[in-house]
Amino acid sequence: MSDHDEPTTSMASQEVKVIQIPLNFPMLPQLAMTGNQATNWKRFYRSWNNYEIAARLRDPNNPSTNKELRTATLLTCIGADALDVFDGLDFANEDERNNIDIVVSKLEKYFIGETNETYERYCFDKRDQKSHETVDAYFAALRTLAKTCNFGNLEDNLIRVRIIMGIKDNATRKKLLEVSKLTLQQSIDTVGSCEKTAKLLESIKNEGEQVLAVGKEQYKEQRKRVEKRDEKKNHFAVVCNAQRRPFSQRKSVNDDTESSEGEYIALVETKEEGQGTLPGTLHLEIDESISPVQLPTRRISLAVKDKLKAELNRLVDMNVIAPVDTPTTWISAIVVTFKKNGDIRLCIDPKPLNKALKRNRYPSPTIDDILPYLAQARCFAVLDAKNGFWHVRLDEPSSYATTFGTPWGRGTTDEEAYLDHDKNLKGLMERCREKGLKLNPDKIQLQLKEVSYMGHRITSNGLKIDPEKTKAIREFIWEEHVHGKALDEIR
User: Fold this and answer.
1) Is residue 25 predicted with pLDDT exceeding 50?
2) Which residue, among 330, 316, 315, 312, has the nearest Cα to 400 in the 3D structure?
3) Does the pLDDT of residue 94 top 70, yes or no?
4) Concatenated DSSP letters for 331-389?
5) What is the top-level taxon of the source organism (predicted)?
6) Are 225 and 238 in contact (CB under 8 A)?
7) Torsion over CA of 385, 387, 393 and 398, rounded to 10 degrees?
8) Is the separation of the CB atoms in 346 and 315 below 8 Å?
9) Is residue 410 part of a domain?
10) Whole-prediction pTM value?
11) Least CB-packed of 25, 120, 155, 191 within 10 Å?
């Protein structure tokens, strides 16, 4: 050996390091060659970095050692298909084939290729929180996507924005937007806290429900008798009220007493009294550029008036509607329809108002969206919200936009009518004084039950013919010598 070769041998001997690999350490899963190869390589390489440290192949303090051993271990783990890819790679010499850094670089270039920064950013911007995905998992997915987007110093800010825009809960998003100087960690903590609170509320709600039960065996037995008639004519036992078990005899699931009827079928207790109300109030956004419309009151037939007045009084007592004693910019027309049982249904016709409303668009699920959830369904139930629209309360400004006119004006009782009369009269007097209009005090008549107007008598009971217009006919003298002539002229 020459003098020139001695230092090289000595240097090589200094780089060799004896290591001990745990024999019971599991092998790394092979690199998958099907599907998205770029994603498969990223997952494999993440596992490989951890495997190197756990198996003591790489020294974190001196990563340049044992490169040949690390390369051989990598090629052993990637599997036969990936090894064929390695054999086809172009290396300058054998040293490059044994250099773990060069091998990893060439494999990464093969499986991932040149990173398309525009596409990577597109994938990042389209990544929303998935159903049942926690905020920590969502944050980890965004952090992984951001690594190939080259965001630089803006990475944390863009991840924060993506979390705000991509989370599922609108209430949480609103809470985040209310903070002017929100950091990434604050957004993660806020979303995580809201998720935990929502789970706790759901747990409390489920525990607070009082559940009743009937015996499953009794239910099956009742269904078997569907074709069996009872003693009454044209009666079936399963639908006869007399044969049904009284509701008071059903036992609570939380009851500790043992039952001989076997398993239970749960029935949630419901309340029949009162009107259901959803939490919060609804505000109607109205386009101010559209002029308000006051529609005239539609005529109501005499046969319906009594029922309509009774229905209005009932709705007022239920706090569904309220009398309006102030001028309003929007007035809709009232519409009366009949239900199958003969009762009336009170509606309004807000066509002009609908044109001015700024609507929130909430897409309803289609049949294609729902069918996958019903693939294994064998038993179904149908529920219907009672007076569904009444569950949504309007705030004070929005409620005036839904004002509608009635045949009784602003008052449904004599007391309300007199109050409305006096208020309108006071406003008229003030208007006359403001414009300089002088009234004749001798002809002023107040609080009348009926008045003459354009050939008619407007009364508190409806419209009548003005007697002055029929006076000539009623007082006509039918003299005998002109009776026949007058009759012919009338004919």
Assistant:
1) yes
2) 330
3) yes
4) BBEEEEEE-TTS-EEEEEE-HHHHHHB-----PPPPHHHHGGGGTT---------TTGG
5) Eukaryota
6) yes
7) 130
8) yes
9) no
10) 0.34
11) 25
Q: Is residue 414 part of a domain?
A: no
Residues 392 and 471 in one domain: no
**Are residues 305 and 352 both part of a single domain?**
yes
CATH classification at residue 351? 3.10.10.10
User: How many helices, marked H, and strands, marked E, lie in the chain?
Assistant: 19, 10
User: Which three-class secondary structure state does DSSP give residue 463?
Assistant: strand
- At 132, which CATH number? 1.10.1200
Q: Are residues 124 and 108 in the same domain?
A: no
Type of residue at 83? L
Residue with tokens 């037995």: 221
Does one domain contain both 105 and 143?
Answer: no
Packing angle between helix 117-125 and helix 135-146, nearest 10 degrees?
Answer: 170
For residues 283 and 392, membership in a common domain is answered with yes
Is residue 185 in a domain?
Answer: yes
Which pLDDT belongs to residue 351? 87
Cβ atoms within 10 A of the Cβ of 405, count?
18
pLDDT 10s digits, 340-390: 887 888 888 888 888 888 887 777 888 777 777 777 777 777 777 777 787
**pLDDT band, very low/low/confident/very high, at 13 (cuts 50, 70, 90):** very low
> By residue range, what is the domain housing residue 95?
37-112
pLDDT tens for each residue of 39-54? 788 888 888 888 887 7
- Among candidates 237, 150, 135, 262, which has minimal Cα distance to 188? 135
Answer yes or no: is pLDDT of 328 > 60. Answer: yes
The answer to whether the beta carbons of residues 267 and 214 sit under 8 Å apart is yes
Q: Are residues 299 and 204 in the same domain?
A: no
The predicted structure's pLDDT at residue 137: 87
Per the structure, how many domains does the chain have? Answer: 4
Q: What's the whole-number mean pLDDT along residues 13-17?
A: 47
248 pLDDT higher than 50? no
